[in-house]
Design brief:
The protein is mainly α and 180 residues long. The protein has one domain. Helices cover 63% and strands 0% of the residues. The protein has helices at residues 3-16, 22-36, 43-54, 59-68, 74-89, 96-100, 104-113, 115-145. The chain is elongated. Mean pLDDT is 80; it is low at 159-180.
């Protein structure tokens, strides 16, 4: 492989894996996403970015995780949290007609009564994000870095073991040589 192509491939791989270990990238992404699910806009992002270095998470991946919940998608996530919380508590969602009829005092009373369902829904969504997000992102980063390599935990593929690694990969192995 030409040096320029190798350099380009290396740069692309670094960009797509955010320059960190699979553990750091997966941890950072899930940290950013899960803390952004807290129903306090921007607070989760700041807390996630502050915690990332302490938890040895990849900082760019943490930021990417926080960017999933943004002004365009936030309403969907926050409505989902409220819906999950209300469903788990067995409470109905307020109707649009009842919302339109509220004055300021009624609105704040309703908002206060929704804090517990929001918190419960956020906790469930954060738990699901942690349980599913970390292993999926970890696996994706490992597969991107080492296509075709074993993906079970604890076994890191050897560097240079791919066919495109150069002359070292062309050396005969004991299974391909025959004493006859």
């Amino acid at each position: 492989m030409a040096p320029r192509t190798r350099s380009l491939r290396s740069g692309l791989r670094s960009l797509l894996t955010l320059g960190g270990t699979p553990r750091g990238v997966a941890g950072g992404f899930v940290l950013g996403l899960s803390l952004s699910l807290l129903p306090v806009p921007f607070a989760g992002m700041f807390v996630a970015l502050a915690l990332a270095p302490l938890l040895r998470c990849n900082l760019p991946a943490t930021y990417v995780g926080t960017a999933v919940v943004n002004p365009l998608t936030g309403a969907f996530f926050y409505a989902s949290e409220l819906w999950i919380g209300l469903a788990l508590l067995g409470r109905p969602a307020p109707s649009f007609a009842s919302l339109r009829a509220l004055d300021a005092a009624g609105f704040f009373a309703l908002l206060q009564s929704m804090l517990l369902p929001f918190a419960i829904g956020a906790a469930v969504l954060v738990a699901v994000t942690l349980a599913l997000g970390y292993p999926l992102v970890h696996l994706a980063v490992r597969r991107w870095r080492h296509p075709g390599a074993p993906t079970h935990e604890g076994v890191e593929p050897q560097r240079g073991a791919t066919p495109s690694a150069g002359p070292a990969s062309e050396a005969p192995t004991p299974s391909t040589t025959s004493p006859h």
